[in-house]
Amino acid sequence: MPIGFVESSIILREDAPSQGDEGAPDAWIILNEHVTEGLEGIYVGQRLIILTWFHQSKRNVLKLHPRWDKNNPLTGVFATRSPDRPNPIGLHPATVLEIQENKIKVSSLEAINGTPVIDIKPDL
Amino acid sequence: MPIGFVESSIILREDAPSQGDEGAPDAWIILNEHVTEGLEGIYVGQRLIILTWFHQSKRNVLKLHPRWDKNNPLTGVFATRSPDRPNPIGLHPATVLEIQENKIKVSSLEAINGTPVIDIKPDL
């Protein structure tokens, strides 16, 4: 069950960069009301890991050419960060830019608008 | 749906350290047969992030005293790494020690025997 969702200017999957540091825009994480108090203690400037569920992913992919490049050798999905994978969980390291009641703005998130958020943790 | 499970000498939750670098033992990740080919390309010495599902967690916890210490101030769950959280996903950075057909041995995993594994990724 999602705890919230991503509000982003990226609308289509083909417009999302492969990693956050490859030009992804800042985005809002909108928390469901019933879990909002779980944000207490998060502060501007903190490094977090946002966990998302790539709801548009193919879940039957076990091998692939990394970065959709046929020049890269066919590789097991667990050795890659492909969003197409059996459980399509995204890990997004991000910095907190702003906090408002039930939402937080974070830097450079490579997830499309409407992507479910399943957890938020302090960075490893 | 799990992709496999943890085989560990830690049997009880109260015996698991809070973090892998606090004395957790090496453990095996046993993959389900139908996803085994997803391991191809993983190598001994590689740094991975193992994602687990803490199946014994309480999922209604929104605030807590970090590390179960009343001296720590009550904190929102998303600002902590508590295993008790709405979606009890564990992130475990670990090094690959050995690979055998459908299983990999990794260093210092703070998850109990039988914990479901939901994803494996290269380290961030």
3D architecture notes:
- With 124 residues, chain A is mainly beta.
- Chain A has no helices and eight strands.
- The first copy, chain A, has strands at residues 4-7, 27-31, 47-53, 63-64, 75-76, 89-100, 103-106, 116-122.
- In chain A, strands 1-2-7-6-3-8 form a six-stranded antiparallel β-barrel.
- In chain A, a hairpin with a 2-residue loop joins strand 6 (89-100) and strand 7.
- Chain A is elongated, with a radius of gyration of 15 Å.
- The A-B interface holds A 1, 3, 35, 37-42, 46, 49, 51, 62-63, 73-81, 85-87, 89, 91, 93, 118-122, 124 and B 1, 3, 35, 37-42, 46, 49, 51, 62-63, 73-81, 85-87, 89, 91, 93, 118-122, 124.
For the sheet with most strands of chain A, the description reads: 6 strands, antiparallel, barrel
Oligomer: homodimer
Strand order of the largest sheet of chain A: 1-2-7-6-3-8
Mean pLDDT of chain A: 94
